[in-house]
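#onboarding

Welcome to the new folks! Below is a worked example of what a typical request in this channel looks like: someone posts a single protein sequence, and someone else replies with the predicted structure as tokens. Don't worry about understanding the tokens yet, we'll cover that in week two.

Example request:
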Amino acid sequence: MPEKIETNRQKSRAYYHAHRDEIRASWKKNKHGQRYMCKRRMGITYEQYLTYVEDLTKKQDNKCAICGQTKKLGLDHNHKTKFIRGLLCHSCNVAIGFLQENVIYLKSAINYLKKYS
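Example response:
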């Protein structure tokens, strides 16, 4: 059985590499990546995602909920509950992710920064 799986992987890779440009164009045209990400990561449809982004953009005055910057914003959500919290810039979203969405870690990071400021 593992040989069959590996053979299928090799065939899939070969097909993808031979048709990479048209596959990517199709995904981009059909917003495949965004639709998949919305459903898998947040449990919502792409249309719901667009509505959340539109509403939160107005509510947050097109600013990151943490740092207030207006660079490209993304929809932040709780990875366990899938609850949508707000719009964050990439830097703030990654920072929360690296600290495992743990309030204790975030407080420790604040104390660390205060100690050495």
